[in-house]
């Protein structure tokens, strides 16, 4: 992808990536809205449709909805900084029928951050991962070192948040 964008000014690449992120987010959001609307419209249909309707009625148990419930609309721009949870959070915001103007306003800073990251270092980071998987041992060592440090930081943050929850009388 970076070869595709090479030779263009940064602002053009950034605008292309921003519009792509915005359109993808809107499509995912509206897919969630359409899914919920269609599922709640009728209880008739084959067995798999009724089971889907029951699952969607209990959607509050899904990971995307949990993040939205805890972080509110801040989860939408933050979703653009994740890999793996982005689609789940945006789809869940459609499922729980977040008002479209609220979703669209919350999406702007997330899409801007995504375009900035992928317009600068994002594609280089993915290229490094692909090279590591392809067998360049120097890059593999760097990726493993980064993953190890990130894992340690994540474990410490998680342990501290559990300590805080226990001290406040919450569930750990």
From TrEMBL:
Keywords: Membrane, Transmembrane, Transmembrane helix
Protein name: Membrane protein DedA with SNARE-associated domain
Superkingdom of the source species: Bacteria
Source species taxonomy: Bacteria, Bacillati, Actinomycetota, Actinomycetes, Mycobacteriales
Bilayer-spanning residue ranges: 12-31, 73-96, 108-130, 137-154
